[in-house]
């Protein structure tokens, strides 16, 4: 037996482990199990190369809780370690790295960076254990000679040569008082599900009951037997080649990933690259309804089937965080902080590669079956529009298949649509005006006005619309988007023809004053327009620029202009007979006329509510 001092100058490594890694205590289990998985896969490789002799036997890794003795044990039948290896890998290496690190970064540490980076993986056990034992016998050992190492969370360790029948390593954690949650079946079960669900070697945690049928025909009997409970699927779908998988396998995998989600994904993208970096994975396009609370953090990041994180913002482009699925890459560092990951060269390459793949897949779907793609459009447009807004390259790719859907539910690509409306929606300045509505029902009267003029109206109802149209305007020359209720139809698409007014300048002046005296001036700007006498007498519009800024502020971005006030234009058609009638009227009758006509315009914009609506109804009844 020997005792020794772990190779570290200060006694400080243990407090550091505990303190800096505080927020993420649970990852100790991932560290220890992935060590066990590594040891097992190494053994398999050595055996294939003929360096490990004999039968390997059952290689299942076991996780055991011994609540009475307050122990958690992780047992593998992998390569094991000799005494020299324990000394080299456990006593020395871990700390020499940590020591340099501490010197360099003293005082400015974000603890998550330490682990892993410096081979502290195994030592993360001390976040939850007051004492850790390693019992290990190397596959190289000729006899039953094994090593027993004990450390009580201080730099002194104990190393003893013992006998052990079986090859492999057993890690025994004496769980400390403040970490007793890790002695609970449910907690460990949950962690195994989180971190080990797809690890490469079978992991057993307890047992479960299974019903088996004994005998055949009439003699068949059902019997309950107890079998080992294997917590992981060692060959998840993404590790297979796409040619081996059918549509149902992908759907099955989706359910495996999200057992609590009942909606099926719309389609998937199988990522499979080995050059210039290693990347596999399956991404799913979920159904996203406009205005629905968008769910992020559904993509899981793995490194060689070991779960790393499901907070992938900054790692994959933001718009892709709306997708679901798995990304696995050996090139993703396991244990580093988010800021480190975001700046990692490989991670950035991976991210732009994924963007490209997603665009490829969408284009392929569009080309292969445009009808089907168009049907899915409504469910995927938020993701695509989001992508087009945030990634220039994705924009360039997507503009070929992003669709415009008009009020008659006809679907066009952007180019097709611009071509279509060029015929009669070019204004006097040569700009093509795309008229759009956010809501077919609410803006019905505006839409039908536009259509009455022979114009077309697209429906843009995603929460990103104002950003999206802004983006399209900057990408396409001489194209402007205007919402149908942003102005009167003649002003939306201004042509050369001028309509003269039936009123004199003086009458116009009087009319304006009368209107202003009877409406809320803070809310409405009164504007007189000479329109066709068949047009409505009063129309309320929401100026395009103000509305867009307001919407963009709500969804992030846009100019910061403080709280934008509610503001509308009240447009009076001077050629409507009502204009003259207002001019001629006197006293209460005059103001009632104005109020009533204004209320009608508000109704058209769905702005009449509460007391104003009640008053309107009473006034209407009285006049019947
Ligand atoms: N269960 C085990 N069986 C065999 N060797 C092990 C086992 N656990 C740890 N080791 C050895 O100890 C070394 C140090 O382990 P540790 O977890 O600290 O770092 P790592 O696994 O090398 O790196 P990291 O965990 O940061 O990815 C391992 O590289 C391995 O050689």
TrEMBL record:
<feature type="binding site">
    <location>
        <begin position="96"/>
        <end position="97"/>
    </location>
    <ligand>
        <name>ATP</name>
    </ligand>
</feature>
<keyword id="KW-0346">Stress response</keyword>
<feature type="binding site">
    <location>
        <position position="169"/>
    </location>
    <ligand>
        <name>ATP</name>
    </ligand>
</feature>
<feature type="binding site">
    <location>
        <position position="338"/>
    </location>
    <ligand>
        <name>ATP</name>
    </ligand>
</feature>
<dbReference type="InterPro" id="IPR037196">
    <property type="entry name" value="HSP90_C"/>
</dbReference>
<dbReference type="InterPro" id="IPR020568">
    <property type="entry name" value="Ribosomal_Su5_D2-typ_SF"/>
</dbReference>
<feature type="binding site">
    <location>
        <position position="31"/>
    </location>
    <ligand>
        <name>ATP</name>
    </ligand>
</feature>
<keyword id="KW-0547">Nucleotide-binding</keyword>
<dbReference type="InterPro" id="IPR020575">
    <property type="entry name" value="Hsp90_N"/>
</dbReference>
<dbReference type="GO" id="GO:0016887">
    <property type="term" value="F:ATP hydrolysis activity"/>
</dbReference>
<feature type="binding site">
    <location>
        <position position="35"/>
    </location>
    <ligand>
        <name>ATP</name>
    </ligand>
</feature>
<dbReference type="InterPro" id="IPR019805">
    <property type="entry name" value="Heat_shock_protein_90_CS"/>
</dbReference>
<dbReference type="GO" id="GO:0005524">
    <property type="term" value="F:ATP binding"/>
</dbReference>
<dbReference type="GO" id="GO:0051082">
    <property type="term" value="F:unfolded protein binding"/>
</dbReference>
<keyword id="KW-0067">ATP-binding</keyword>
<protein>
    <recommendedName>
        <fullName>Chaperone protein HtpG</fullName>
    </recommendedName>
</protein>
<feature type="binding site">
    <location>
        <position position="81"/>
    </location>
    <ligand>
        <name>ATP</name>
    </ligand>
</feature>
<dbReference type="InterPro" id="IPR036890">
    <property type="entry name" value="HATPase_C_sf"/>
</dbReference>
<keyword id="KW-0143">Chaperone</keyword>
<feature type="binding site">
    <location>
        <position position="76"/>
    </location>
    <ligand>
        <name>ATP</name>
    </ligand>
</feature>
<comment type="similarity">
    <text>Belongs to the heat shock protein 90 family.</text>
</comment>
<dbReference type="GO" id="GO:0140662">
    <property type="term" value="F:ATP-dependent protein folding chaperone"/>
</dbReference>
<dbReference type="Pfam" id="PF00183">
    <property type="entry name" value="HSP90"/>
</dbReference>
<keyword id="KW-0963">Cytoplasm</keyword>
<dbReference type="Pfam" id="PF13589">
    <property type="entry name" value="HATPase_c_3"/>
</dbReference>
<dbReference type="InterPro" id="IPR001404">
    <property type="entry name" value="Hsp90_fam"/>
</dbReference>
């Amino acid at each position: 037996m020997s005792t020794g001092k772990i190779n570290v100058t200060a006694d400080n490594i243990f407090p550091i482990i505990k303190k800096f890694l505080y927020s993420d205590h649970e990852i100790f289990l991932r560290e220890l199990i992935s060590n066990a998985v590594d040891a097992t896969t190494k053994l398999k490789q050595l055996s294939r190369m003929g360096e490990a002799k004999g039968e390997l036997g059952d290689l299942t890794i076991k996780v055991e809780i011994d609540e009475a003795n307050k122990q958690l044990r992780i047992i593998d039948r992998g390569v094991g370690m000799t005494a020299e290896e324990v000394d080299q890998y456990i006593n020395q290496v871990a700390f020499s790295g940590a020591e340099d690190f501490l010197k360099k970064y003293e005082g400015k540490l974000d603890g998550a960076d330490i682990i892993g980076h410096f081979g502290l993986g195994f030592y993360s056990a001390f976040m939850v254990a007051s004492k850790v034992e390693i019992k290990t016998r190397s596959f190289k050992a000729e006899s039953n000679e094994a090593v027993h190492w004990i450390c009580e969370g201080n730099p002194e360790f104990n190393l003893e040569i013992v006998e052990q029948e079986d090859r492999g390593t057993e890690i025994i954690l004496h769980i400390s008082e403040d970490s007793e949650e890790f002695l609970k079946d449910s907690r460990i079960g949950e962690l195994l599900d989180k971190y080990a669900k797809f690890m490469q070697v079978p992991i057993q945690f307890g047992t479960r009951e299974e019903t088996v049928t004994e005998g055949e025909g009439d003699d068949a009997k059902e019997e309950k037997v107890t079998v080992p409970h294997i917590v992981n699927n060692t060959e998840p779908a993404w590790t297979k080649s796409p040619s081996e998988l059918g549509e149902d396998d992908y759907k099955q995998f989706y359910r495996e990933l999200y057992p609590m989600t009942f909606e099926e994904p719309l389609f998937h993208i199988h990522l499979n690259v080995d050059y210039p970096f290693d990347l596999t994975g399956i991404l799913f396009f979920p159904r996203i309804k406009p205005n629905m609370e968008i769910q992020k953090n559904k993509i899981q990041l793995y490194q060689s089937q070991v779960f790393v994180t499901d907070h992938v913002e900054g790692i994959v482009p933001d718009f892709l965080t709306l997708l679901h699925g798995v990304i696995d890459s050996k090139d993703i560092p396991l244990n580093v902080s988010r800021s480190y990951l975001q700046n990692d060269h490989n991670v950035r390459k991976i991210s732009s590669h994924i963007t490209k793949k997603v665009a490829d897949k969408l284009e392929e779907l569009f080309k292969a079956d445009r009808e089907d793609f168009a049907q899915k459009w409504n469910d995927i447009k938020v993701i695509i529009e989001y992508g087009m807004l945030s990634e220039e390259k994705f924009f360039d790719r997507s503009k070929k298949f992003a669709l415009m859907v008009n009020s008659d539910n006809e679907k066009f690509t952007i180019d097709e649509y611009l071509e279509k409306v060029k015929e009669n929606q070019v204004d006097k300045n040569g700009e093509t005006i795309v008229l759009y509505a956010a809501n077919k029902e609410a803006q019905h009267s505006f839409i039908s006005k536009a259509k009455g003029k022979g114009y077309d109206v697209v429906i843009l109802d995603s929460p990103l619309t104002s950003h999206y149209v802004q983006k399209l305007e900057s990408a396409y020359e001489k194209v402007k988007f205007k919402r149908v209720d942003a102005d009167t139809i003649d002003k939306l698409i201004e042509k050369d023809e001028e309509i003269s007014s039936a009123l004199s300048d003086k009458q116009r002046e009087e009319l304006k004053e009368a209107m202003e005296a009877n409406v809320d001036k803070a809310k409405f700007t009164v504007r007189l327009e000479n329109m066709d006498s068949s047009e409505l007498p009063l129309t309320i519009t929401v100026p395009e620029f103000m509305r867009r800024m307001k919407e963009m502020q709500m969804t992030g971005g846009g100019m910061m202009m403080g709280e934008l006030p509610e503001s509308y234009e009240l447009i009076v058609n001077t050629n409507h007979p009502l204009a003259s009638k207002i001019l001629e009227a006197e006293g209460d009758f005059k103001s009632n006329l104005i109020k009533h006509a204004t209320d009608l315009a508000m109704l058209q914009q769905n702005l009449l509510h509460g007391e104003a609506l009640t008053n309107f109804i009473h006034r209407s009844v009285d006049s019947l």
